[in-house]
Amino acid sequence: MTLTGGPSLPQERKLVTSIPGPKSQEMLARKNAAVAAGVGVALPVSIVAAGGGVMVDVDGNSLIDLGSGIAVTGVGNSAPAVVEAVTAQVQQFTHTCFTVTPYEGYIAVAEKLNEVTPGDHEKRSALFNSGAEAVENAIKIARHFTKKNAVVVFDHAYHGRTNLTMGMTAKNMPYKDGFGPFAPEVYRVPASYPYRDGLTGAEAAQVAITQIEKQVGADNLAAMIIEPIQGEGGFIAPAEGFLPALQEWATANKVVFILDEVQTGFARTGDRFAADHEGVVPDLITTAKGIAGGLPLSAVTGRAEIMDSAHAGGLGGTYTGSPISCAAALATIDTYEKENLAARATEIGAIITEFFAELQKNDDRIGDIRGRGAMMAVEFVESGSKNPAAALTSAIAKHAANEGVILLTCGTYGNVVRFLPPLSISDELLREALQIVADALAAN
Ligand SMILES: *Cc1c(COP(=O)(O)O)cnc(C)c1O
User: Fold this and answer.
1) Ligand 1 pocket residue status of 271, Cβ below 6 Å
2) Required cofactors, per record (predicted)?
3) Is the pTM of this model over 0.85?
4) CB 82 near ligand 1, within 6 Å
């Protein structure tokens, strides 16, 4: 089947087979015979084209996309500006290895990141391939700068699947189970989870800080890293004041304060970065997912004196800051700004919040509706309690998939449905998908 992706794809939900269809099932059989079992798939429909708010599969079904490939295609799949920039770049050159012979695209992305990330201090950036790689490098840089070793992470955190970032990630299944031993000097402290801990931001920060002081000691601590809205852990937005209190403590104690904005960055939460919501300025920020319209790229950006502390040759990699990904990133960041997609994210968030707030009046299994912008979630609980309703949550995602809606779940307790639509989705498609989620809830 040949079909061109991008916004010109018919913006409709259309099912011509059951999900997954026969051709997707054939593909799944090939996958199972050829691909390592550890590489699981959430929904085994094989995609042939995507754009706007839909994905079309090999059987000709058109599904509504509420996942954006996990918050990646914020500007939409095959966004025209990205396709154009990438096409032009591959015709010029595909690779040099920036640390052998440099090129402008990498430098231009660094300049752009230094400009748009929080804070107006002097900054430097370094580019990598994946979110996990950015996080690893942020830790490397913080350790090199402070000459200290310990790293503080939080409950419910997700930072990746490489050895160091696995150890920094909270959830055992599926991310860590059987994959140890993990890197030393990583210490976990409580996060702010307003729905479940009932604490103010200042109180939650005090709990974390006390634990750090008693169990780690600021003199040993190189870095504290946190997602400003926790992603895989359940789209947990901390109580107001939590992040500023942590930042203040870190600064006072010569601890590098790192925000992991791999999932929250670039318009997704309705601001340029989630940190902007409370005016928090991190020492270092890690970015990836939404940065390049689907091409692999990540970055660490931060204070010049910290970033410049590592010696030449200490940071890099064969493919880091690929010219193709850099071309895509420049076009992507430009698109967020030109099309004011942060404002669009806020509109999407308002539609989702209003929709579930209405349903919640008559269904107390909707425990919490939270998030910001187009990074929204609903936490499902058993009626009359706050007990996590994980089975209900997977049933909802399955029902939605059968009806042609790609819906992701998350959360430490597996009871959170998350909404991460591409910012190019129409209101009509979004509302149609939300109604299907409501139908799924009613049916379960
Ligand atoms: C996805 C994610 C990562 C890991 O990124 P990869 O590109 O999958 O390595 C790290 N941190 C956060 C907050 C993420 O959401």
Assistant:
1) no
2) pyridoxal 5'-phosphate
3) yes
4) no
